[in-house]
Amino acid sequence: MTQSLPVRNPRNGKYDYTIHPPEATELATICQKMRRAQTHWQAMGVAGRVAALQQWKKVSQAMLPAIIEALATDTGRKAESVLEAQLIASSIDRWCNIATEVLSQKIEKPSSIPFISIQQELEPYELVGVISPWNFPLLLSLIDTIPALLAGCAVIVKPSEITPRFIKPLMQSIAQVPALAEVLVYVEGAGQTGAQLIELTDLICFTGSVATGLKVYESAARHFKPVFLELGGKDPAIVTATANLEHATSSLLWGSVVNAGQSCLSIERIYVEDRVFEPFVDLLVQKANRLQFAYPTYESGQIGPIISDKQIAIINEHLRDAKEKGAHILTGSGQVEMIDGGGWCFPTVLTNVTPDMKVMTEETFGPLMPVMPFHGIEDAIEKANSTIFGLSGAVFAGTNEEAIAIGKRIKGGAISINDSALTAVVHEGEKNSFKMSGIGGTRMGAAAIRRFMRQKAFLIKQQAIPSPWWFDSPH
Amino acid sequence: MTQSLPVRNPRNGKYDYTIHPPEATELATICQKMRRAQTHWQAMGVAGRVAALQQWKKVSQAMLPAIIEALATDTGRKAESVLEAQLIASSIDRWCNIATEVLSQKIEKPSSIPFISIQQELEPYELVGVISPWNFPLLLSLIDTIPALLAGCAVIVKPSEITPRFIKPLMQSIAQVPALAEVLVYVEGAGQTGAQLIELTDLICFTGSVATGLKVYESAARHFKPVFLELGGKDPAIVTATANLEHATSSLLWGSVVNAGQSCLSIERIYVEDRVFEPFVDLLVQKANRLQFAYPTYESGQIGPIISDKQIAIINEHLRDAKEKGAHILTGSGQVEMIDGGGWCFPTVLTNVTPDMKVMTEETFGPLMPVMPFHGIEDAIEKANSTIFGLSGAVFAGTNEEAIAIGKRIKGGAISINDSALTAVVHEGEKNSFKMSGIGGTRMGAAAIRRFMRQKAFLIKQQAIPSPWWFDSPH
Question: Which residue of A77, A324, A432, B237 has the fewest C-beta atoms within 10 A of its own C-beta?
Answer without folding.
Answer: A324
